[in-house]
């Protein structure tokens, strides 16, 4: 894809990756892909802001050369040291040794440890500026979005915010890089939410701090490191991130995540009855099989819904392992203060509920009603399951 002008003298030189299976080696994106957004400012002094993943060097260099020769690059600004941003830094150092590499003090320290680069580097502080000629860059320290060294770079005359991982999302761009060119905005917003919960949600307080800090800066374009470039409605993605970040401490949307896992179909039968009850109460419900759905897709539902119903059998006097694994990731992501309920069966001995409580108690989840049965659920159990789902949904509507 050719370089794209974002604003006068400012170009997107990103790389579109549709071959990657896992982001960070964890999160599945084989069906969505991802973009590595990089930018170049073509001025008296020429600066590249963010790089790309190391295995995309040929594509990336071709993008740069559409704008300028590598020998003319004066600065390389590293907003974030994660390798999907900085993976080409050693190649760029060999091909453009004259370019000074800028980053936060912490990024410069990490650069030596990751890449053994210590010469022709410069640390920048919060609020520092850099004149390129017609364009001036201002550096904004935004630590832990989502690494401690992260900064954003702001171009003052065209009011472009190069926001790094903040305001980004999964999803390879489909021809147009801008929000107003996209014919599938729901796709990008859904993937931005999944990206937020998978990658950034653990640092939601930092996200809100950064948004408050940015309130004093007029921004016309949000240019993140992944996903769409927001030029028509930059406030849209900022407001979405703010809403998602506030879910960390505030009540989420009324709705139920119905998370189940079934060994032989008995729990699934009970789950269908529970779902009927939820629906009868008129509350939205999303249903996930924890054994067959990657937790990447489950986390956004739990993050944005006020209630979670967990259905799983006892397995060797403990919680069914796929369910336990999914909930351990929920715990790792520090999804707190949900209202929950549990149903499940056992054969000769229980134990699932006991382990479930050990997982949920540190998260301050309010585990209310539970429904357990022995063996397969009978007709009477299914009636109870339906009522169980309805009453839980109604309790969310009352709160």
What does this structure look like?
- The structure is a single chain.
- The protein is α/β, with parallel strands linked by helices.
- It folds into two domains: 4-246, Ribonuclease Z/Hydroxyacylglutathione hydrolase-like (Metallo-beta-lactamase, Chain A); 253-398, 3-Layer(aba) Sandwich (Rossmann fold).
- The chain is built from twelve helices and 23 strands.
- It has helices at 57-67, 83-86, 89-95, 105-115, 185-200, 204-214, 234-246, 266-280, 295-304, 321-332, 352-360, 379-398; strands spanning 4-7, 10-12, 15-17, 22-23, 27-28, 34-36, 39-41, 46-49, 73-77, 100-103, 121-123, 129-131, 136-141, 151-155, 160-164, 221-224, 253-260, 285-289, 305-311, 314-315, 318-319, 339-346, 366-374.
- The strands form six sheets. Strands 1-2-7-8-9-10-11 form a seven-stranded mixed beta sheet. A five-stranded mixed beta sheet has the order 12-13-14-15-16, with no helix packed on it. The chain has a five-stranded parallel beta sheet with strand order 18-17-19-22-23, with helices on both faces.
- Strand 20 (314-315) and strand 21 (318-319) form a beta hairpin.
- Helix 5 crosses helix 7 (234-246) and helix 8 (266-280) packs across helix 12 (379-398).
- The longest helix is centred in the last third of the chain and has 20 residues, at 379-398.
- The radius of gyration is 24 Å and the shape is elongated.
- The model has no long low-confidence stretch (mean pLDDT 96).
């Amino acid at each position: 894809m050719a370089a794209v002008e974002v604003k006068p003298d400012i170009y997107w030189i990103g790389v579109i990756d549709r071959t990657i299976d896992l982001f960070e080696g964890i999160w599945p994106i084989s069906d969505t892909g991802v973009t590595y957004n990089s930018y170049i400012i073509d001025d008296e002094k020429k600066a590249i802001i963010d790089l790309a993943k190391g295995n995309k060097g040929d594509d990336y260099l071709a993008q740069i050369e559409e704008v300028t020769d590598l020998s003319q690059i004066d600065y390389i600004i590293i907003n974030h040291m994660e390798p999907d941003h900085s993976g080409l830094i050693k190649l760029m150092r060999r091909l453009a040794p004259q370019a000074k590499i800028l980053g936060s003090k912490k990024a410069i320290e990490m650069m030596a440890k990751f890449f053994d680069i210590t010469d022709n580097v410069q640390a920048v502080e919060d609020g520092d500026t850099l004149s390129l000629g017609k364009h001036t860059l201002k550096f904004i320290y935004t630590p832990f979005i989502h690494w401690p060294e992260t900064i954003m770079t702001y171009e003052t005359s065209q009011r472009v915010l190069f926001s790094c991982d903040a305001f980004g999302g999964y999803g390879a761009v489909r021809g147009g890089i801008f929000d107003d060119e996209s014919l599938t905005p729901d796709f990008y917003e859904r993937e931005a939410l999944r990206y937020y919960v998978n990658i950034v949600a653990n640092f939601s307080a930092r996200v809100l701090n950064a948004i408050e800090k940015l309130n004093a800066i007029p921004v016309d374009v949000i240019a993140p490191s992944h996903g769409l470039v927001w030029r028509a409605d930059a406030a849209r993605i900022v407001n979405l991130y703010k809403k998602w970040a506030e879910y960390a401490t505030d009540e989420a949307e009324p709705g139920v995540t119905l998370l189940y896992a079934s060994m032989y179909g008995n729990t699934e039968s009970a789950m269908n009855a529970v779902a009927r009850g939820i629906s009868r109460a008129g509350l939205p419900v999303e249903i996930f099989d924890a054994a067959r759905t990657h937790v990447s897709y489950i986390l956004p539902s739990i993050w944005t819904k006020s209630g979670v119903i967990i259905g799983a059998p006892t397995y060797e006097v403990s919680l069914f392992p796929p369910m336990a694994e999914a909930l351990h990731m929920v715990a790792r992501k520090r999804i707190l203060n949900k209202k929950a309920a549990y149903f499940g069966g056992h054969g000769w001995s229980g134990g699932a509920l006991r382990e479930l409580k050990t997982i949920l108690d540190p998260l301050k989840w309010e585990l209310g009603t539970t429904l357990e049965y022995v063996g397969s659920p009978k007709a009477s159990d299914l009636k109870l399951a339906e009522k169980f789902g309805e009453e839980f949904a109604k309790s969310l509507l009352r709160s």
